[in-house]
What does this fold into?
Amino acid sequence: MKISNRIKKKLRRKLAAALAAGIMTFSIGFGSVDAAQILNVTLDETIQRAFENNRTIKESIADRESAFWSLSEARRQGNPKLAWNFEAQRFGGSAYRSYTYNRSFTNSGTISMPIYQGGRLKEGRRSARYALSSADLSLENTMQDVRLRSTIYYFNVLQYRNLIGVYEEEVVTLQEHLRNVNAQFRVGTVAKVDVLESQVELANAQQNLVNIQNNYDVAVATLNNFIGLPTDTVIRPQDTLAYKKYNLNLGDCTAYALQNRADAAMADYAVKQAESARRAAKAGYRPQVNASISKGLTNENLVSKKIDDQWTAGISATWNIFDGGITSAQVHEADAALTRAKEVAAQTREQIQLDVQQYFLELRAAEKNIGTTQASVSLAEENYKIAQVRYAAGVGTNLDVMDASRKLTEARSNYFTALYNYNTAKASLDRYMGVPVEIDVVRYVESEAEGKTAAQSREDAALTPEAAVVPEAEDVAPVVTIDFENDSPLPSDSVKNEYTKDRAFK
It folds into this structure.
């Protein structure tokens, strides 16, 4: 990243000022969005921003365009080729004394065309078509990955926002408890050790809050980076982590994934490419036939009117009766590549089943934990109230109160963690089932098998009119940088505590 000289000078001045003060505590201006300019975003908006700005998707689009032109190249291998050649010569010496000229100019043109290459050109076109289909599905696969990652990054922000509320509540509770302990210490009903223990517990809670706020800031920066915003942008998610029951069973999810996962279809295309490469290798056993037409003009001197012209037309055939075993080696190499491609395809389907089972089980575990932790919060709240009453009555200890406070914070954190795990497992399960973003994989494969072009197959499989449009690579967007000139608060500074006991756990 290039920094202007003006900014460099400003950074040097800040460094000099910090060193003069004996400390190194300056900050490179964090952002151009102040507290009054918070960007409100929903999950759907976040995913759409990622689709528009994420560089991984743009890389896949460029790969797809490269595959398209590779197919175009393969198709044009069988077209006629026209070549023009010009030669100019000047010569002399005793050997040429009898010649009446010392210059020669030759123009020749040749049209050539392959007639039969043993099937090599045909298989090249077929393999390139499979590669283009695979690139289309790879783009869909990438978009599914981007949707999952942007969803998880968004949920990370929601999770840490919830935890900020939990730890803020703990700090407030311990501050109130410390005031009560100090009041009782002043009248002599509790010992000094209770005050010290309460102060230590409050300091620990404040430290935990600072760590969670930092995690929130990192989560926001990570999300901004992934969806193409400056990392110092202050965003405010508009969604909440909620529980919505998932009714499908493991068998249905697995069957859907095996049929709809893009990477499974890509593995099948890799097998077809390997089969095509094997057939192309066998072309070495067959003859090659080419046709050509050539015409030449020779002028002995530019000022001379004497021009010799000649033309030839014919067919040439070449057949390697024995090539030293090169073709045989190439066929065996292609056999090994085909075996490997089939193993990869089989492994892909086994991994698909494992992926679905893993996230389905995680989803079910998180679902059970939601109910358990929700009940635990109620019990922990009741336990804390009892500990406070017992301590105020002089029959409980200060340690009982602080232990109850820690358990209450842990219970609330566990509840939000269970909600987070459930939602991320649901998003992951959708991804590893192959829930589509733009194109239906099954319909695309069927359309390709019917012999349609990649554009027609994409149109047949498109889920929306916009998805039917063939994507094109664009110019590389400039690097997204933060504003070095302006200071702004960290995202956690703008978080309003929306956490309440009445709303969070009902």
Observations:
- The CA atoms of residues 178 and 196 lie 9 Å apart.
